[in-house]
């Protein structure tokens, strides 16, 4: 009996010890579980490294815990990558010395149809990792990366952000360029909303640049920013100035010395650069695009209207063809001399529907003339419709690529070209512009109508009509800067235009008054016979020149309240109207002066 009580006591003690042990273990497991859950909650508030895209998330507290982490909230500005301090400091020194663009950006190519498309691959082209090594080996020293940021904006209330996956893709491509010792220009491309409705979309443009400039602020000096590609539609240069300058201010908050590429409105061409107003910032670069003659470079282009009619247009490198391009480049060089800023020929190229020999001829001359005037250049583009590389065959179009980099840079000839005509810039309050030319007459030439414009050393201009014209009449405009609408009539009664008909080669002139918009009316027509007459409207001068006299107020009623865009004298010029070949003609006319009286 005694032993039985002892046995029962021992069993009871063992039972309670076992019960206590199980309870303590359960408490420990609960504590570990609680700690892990707390850690998981903390981690859920950050962005996973492999997150694909940031999206809005509405959390339901009563919902069953998901098996995968919930998508994170949008981060407004992404952090720049960590770069060793000594490396970053070296890059800052490079920027401060101003050596990056002038010495490391000379020959480049556009990575077109990739990231500016609605989604990468939508236009049949993807960036491949091996591309930059091929580009470097081919003799290029930089690339231009068109980026369609506007296709990847995310809106949450008043917050505007960029898809994380897309930003990381851009960063990856920039990293690859840096690894391959290539400079790279990042731009905003095809942001059509801004082109059409700038007042509405300007804040989004500014936000994009805050994100870009913050994300890349610690990158090397050979990463360059370009504010906008080809502003157009509502963004003429005078309108574009305010938006571009605000973007420069934003970039300078985080990138005080980084090179920034600026451009004029009106499709980023040459015609708009005189209206530019830009900060006196030595780290700016002017970009312009040149696809002249357009009927050659864009023949058969599906995205432009009626370009099939120009199929078969050749470019053989005649004196007329070269002279037209040379005069445009001389003009941009004069602008560069007036500001002291370098120039980038940001885009030029000939579409694949032109014959290859003409493409090679034109491309080689464009490269040659750009280097003669000291312009960096980036060909449009690498591996699509204008491309120098066939991604399917994985090989270059050898002769076309050689037209760009097959000839070594001629250091003795580089940047020796002189600008013309002389250009001066208004200066004040830390800004350049607008700009003025020291010309007797200011003419805009429609090169696609089969003509070229050339400045002379005495301030006059010569228009040459040449072969390969695609219309019956060549067109040009004289800007009548001081002609205004007073409300009762034009500010001047008469316009007098003096010309020299070289070798009497021009047979017909038609003059219209034009409001630089949607209205024009005829004010004079002269054929071969009347060009040699003496009347109250045309005077034969003793020095062989001819003066046309236009009575402006005879047509004022038609222009009343329609002159907000200025007034131009529009000219249709013809030679050899009875020529055998419809588009085979030649003729020259020198424009001496225009006067308002």
Please tell me about this protein's structure.
This protein is of the alpha/beta class and 597 residues long. It folds into two domains: 85-423, Alpha-Beta Barrel (TIM Barrel); 440-596, Jelly Rolls (Sandwich), CATH 2.60.120. The protein has 13 helices and 26 strands. The chain has helices spanning 2-44, 85-97, 100-104, 131-137, 164-179, 192-196, 198-215, 237-254, 294-297, 319-339, 356-372, 398-405, 556-559, and strands at 107-110, 142-145, 153-156, 159-162, 183-187, 223-226, 260-263, 278-279, 284-289, 343-347, 376-379, 389-390, 395-396, 423-428, 431-437, 443-445, 451-455, 461-465, 474-479, 494-502, 508-514, 520-526, 538-540, 546-551, 568-574, 587-596. The strands form six sheets. Strands 1-2-5-6-7-9-10-11 form an eight-stranded parallel β-barrel. Helix 7 (198-215) packs parallel to helix 8 (237-254), helix 10 (319-339) runs parallel beside helix 11 and helix 11 (356-372) runs parallel beside helix 12. The longest helix has 43 residues, at 2-44. The termini are far apart. The relative contact order is 0.08. The model is unreliable at 18-100 (pLDDT under 50).
Walk me through the topology:
Elements: H1 2-44, H2 85-97, H3 100-104, E1 107-110, H4 131-137, E2 142-145, E3 153-156, E4 159-162, H5 164-179, E5 183-187, H6 192-196, H7 198-215, E6 223-226, H8 237-254, E7 260-263, E8 278-279, E9 284-289, H9 294-297, H10 319-339, E10 343-347, H11 356-372, E11 376-379, E12 389-390, E13 395-396, H12 398-405, E14 423-428, E15 431-437, E16 443-445, E17 451-455, E18 461-465, E19 474-479, E20 494-502, E21 508-514, E22 520-526, E23 538-540, E24 546-551, H13 556-559, E25 568-574, E26 587-596
Parallel strand pairs: 1-2, 1-11, 2-5, 5-6, 6-7, 7-9, 9-10, 10-11
Antiparallel strand pairs: 3-4, 8-15, 12-13, 14-15, 16-19, 17-18, 18-26, 19-25, 20-24, 20-26, 21-22, 21-25, 23-24
Helix pairs in contact: 7-8, 10-11, 11-12
């Amino acid at each position: 009996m005694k032993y039985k009580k002892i046995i029962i006591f021992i069993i009871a003690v063992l039972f309670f010890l076992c019960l206590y042990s199980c309870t303590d273990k359960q408490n420990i497991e609960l504590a570990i579980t609680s700690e892990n859950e707390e850690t998981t909650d903390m981690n859920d508030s950050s962005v996973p490294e492999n997150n694909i895209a940031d999206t809005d998330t509405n959390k339901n507290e009563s919902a069953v815990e998901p098996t995968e982490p919930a998508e994170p909230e949008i981060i407004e500005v992404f952090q720049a990558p960590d770069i060793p301090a000594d490396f970053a400091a070296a890059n800052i020194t490079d920027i401060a010395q101003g050596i990056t663009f002038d010495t490391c950006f000379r020959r480049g190519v556009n990575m077109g149809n990739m990231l500016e498309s609605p989604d990468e691959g939508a236009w049949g082209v993807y960036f491949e990792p091996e591309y930059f090594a091929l580009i470097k080996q081919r003799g290029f020293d930089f690339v231009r990366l068109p980026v369609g940021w506007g296709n990847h904006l995310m809106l949450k209330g008043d917050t505007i952000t960029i898809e994380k996956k897309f930003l990381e893709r851009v960063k990856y491509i920039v990293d690859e360029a840096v690894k391959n010792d290539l400079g790279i220009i990042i731009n905003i491309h095809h942001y059509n909303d801004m082109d059409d409705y700038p007042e509405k979309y300007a804040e989004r443009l500014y936000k994009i640049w805050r994100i870009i400039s913050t994300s890349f602020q610690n990158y090397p000096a050979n990463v360059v920013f370009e504010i906008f590609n080809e502003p157009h539609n509502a963004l003429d240069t005078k309108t574009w100035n305010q938006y571009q300058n605000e973007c420069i201010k934003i970039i300078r908050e985080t990138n005080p010395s980084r090179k920034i590429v600026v451009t004029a409105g009106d499709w980023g061409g040459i015609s708009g650069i005189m209206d530019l107003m830009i900060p006196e910032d030595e780290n700016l670069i002017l970009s312009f695009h040149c696809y002249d003659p357009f009927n050659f470079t864009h023949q058969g282009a599906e995205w432009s209207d009626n370009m099939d009619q120009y199929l078969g247009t050749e470019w053989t490198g005649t004196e007329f063809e070269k002279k037209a391009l040379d005069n445009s480049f001389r003009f941009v060089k004069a602008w560069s001399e007036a500001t002291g800023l370098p120039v980038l020929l940001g885009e030029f190229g000939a579409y694949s529907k032109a014959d290859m020999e003409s493409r090679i001829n034109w491309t080689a001359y464009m490269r040659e003339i750009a280097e003669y005037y000291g312009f960096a250049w980036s060909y449009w583009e690498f591996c699509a419709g204008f491309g120098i590389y066939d991604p399917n065959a994985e090989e270059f179009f050898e002769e076309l690529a050689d037209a760009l980099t097959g000839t070594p840079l001629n250091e003795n000839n580089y940047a020796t070209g002189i600008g013309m005509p002389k250009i001066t810039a208004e200066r004040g309050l830390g800004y350049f512009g607008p700009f003025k030319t020291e010309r007797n007459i200011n003419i805009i030439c429609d090169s696609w109508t089969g003509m070229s414009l050339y400045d002379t050393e005495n301030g006059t201009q010569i228009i040459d009509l040449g072969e390969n014209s695609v219309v019956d009449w060549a067109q040009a405009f004289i800007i009548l800067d001081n002609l205004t609408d007073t409300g009762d009539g034009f500010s001047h009664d008469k316009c007098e235009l003096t010309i020299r008909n070289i070798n009497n080669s021009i047979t017909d002139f038609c003059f219209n008054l034009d409001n630089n918009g949607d209205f024009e009316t005829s004010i004079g027509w002269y054929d071969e016979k009347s060009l040699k007459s003496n009347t109250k409207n045309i005077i034969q001068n003793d020095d062989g020149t001819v003066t046309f006299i236009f009575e402006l107020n005879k047509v004022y009623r038609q222009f009343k309240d329609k002159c907000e865009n200025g007034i131009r004298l529009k000219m249709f010029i013809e030679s050899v109207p009875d020529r055998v070949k419809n588009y085979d003609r030649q003729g020259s006319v020198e424009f001496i002066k225009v006067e308002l009286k």
